[in-house]
């Protein structure tokens, strides 16, 4: 075991080839968004440091790929145990650097651990297939082999969960790995790597390099890195996808979102209100599965509008470390500014602010980056605010006359991360499930997040690639298939034995 950072008020380190290293890169402040206090300095590492990590991972691959899968997963069992033991301190770190409530941090960490659990099934999941006698005396096999060095580039909004959509599968399949966390929330991975350091993986199997665009570009161009997983905004996803593909790499890029929920007149309005309020305002709207548009069909408008306004006004906003708080701050002062200017854009386009959460006073947290829940009503379906990802606690209300018009509006969007329907009608639910152009569908669900054993299935501009993160898709992404066609001479062989 080597020494990581003992306190949060320090400059973070990289973890390369089984050792903690101070980086030569410029430091950047990591800010607690609830208090605006500096938590630590994160280094913006250099391309030379990325190269060091990639070379260590490439060297480690030669032995790691030959380590039987049943042994590889023993490290993951140990990691799960340590993550369970350190569950509360890690959840607190997530809240400190990311701003979400402690319960939300616990929820995402649980999802991270579930991916470790699923990846422990790799001896079953990584199996190939075979067929005897494809021709007389000839057999054919398909086997899965690891790729080599792979890397993940993560966003700020789920500092523990998102790297774990990929990391446990990459390792279990026999790849070696590099993690590049978001430079805005690097503390969580620092903590998790302190646990990884204790499970005694062979040196170089997993590496942590902190940084920003410079490190991302170094990953995209490094010849030893065979596969890249990215989660973040759509413009960056598109950039990564094309540059990584041009360099011949396997790549999966999850992008931004603008998630609609349709509310039919027969929906249970109490349940719908509670669930959609959690979806729109949970994690301060900074979830890629946050509801952003509520499309009320027919009479649903009368019951839902009043109920969701009440839910928005009564939501308790503050420091996520405090037990009574239901919504924390947004990530940075710039995010807050961007969200507030998008609310203004909606108003300029003709929407009415039913609940206006701009410039709130949060007692004791005057420096924090807070926006209270906001609801715009009478939003024109053709307006910019309907198309633009806000990534903040803002819900736009639209009124339409029919489910067909509502589904047409859902399908007109650029993104396809999630779409949800609230109804008591099985026929309406089936129609919606069949026709809605989104990869994650909720029926009376507000955050349709797939469990670890299902793929996280964004569509359209929410995803570039074909194989998604999590479960069997991840196993396919982190392996290459090899097909063997085999024949043995039958001539006189039995006389030799
Ligand atoms: P981001 O795109 O700004 O950053 C993501 C990562 O890319 C970070 O590690 C960052 O260092 C790096 N990066 C940023 N700009 C870059 C550039 N120009 N060139 C190369 N690398 C760059 O995203 P974010 O603000 O951290 O996260 C929020 C976004 O992520 C939202 O759009 C949200 O919808 C999306 N998101 C999507 C999913 C999904 O599953 N589809 C999940 C979570 C978040």
Compute the CA-based radius of gyration.
24 Å
How does the overall form come out from the CA principal axes? Answer: globular
CATH architecture of the largest domain: 3-Layer(aba) Sandwich
Number of helices: 16
- State the major sheet: 7 strands, mixed
CATH topology grouping of the largest domain: Aldehyde Dehydrogenase, Chain A, domain 1
Class computed from helices, strands and strand pairing: alpha/beta
Assembly annotation? single chain
CATH superfamily of the largest domain: Aldehyde Dehydrogenase, Chain A, domain 1
Q: What is the residue-mean pLDDT, rounded to a whole number?
A: 97
- Order of strands in the sheet with most strands: 14-15-16-13-12-18-19
**Helical content (DSSP H or I, runs of 4+):** 25-40%
Reading off the top of the CATH hierarchy, the class of the largest domain is best stated as: Alpha Beta
- Poorly predicted sequence stretches spanning 5 or more consecutive residues: 1-8
Bound small molecules, by name, code or SMILES, are: nicotinamide-adenine-dinucleotide
According to DSSP, the number of beta strands is: 22
Terminal CA distance: 52 Å
In total, the number of domains comes to 2
What amount of the residues lies in strands?
15-25%
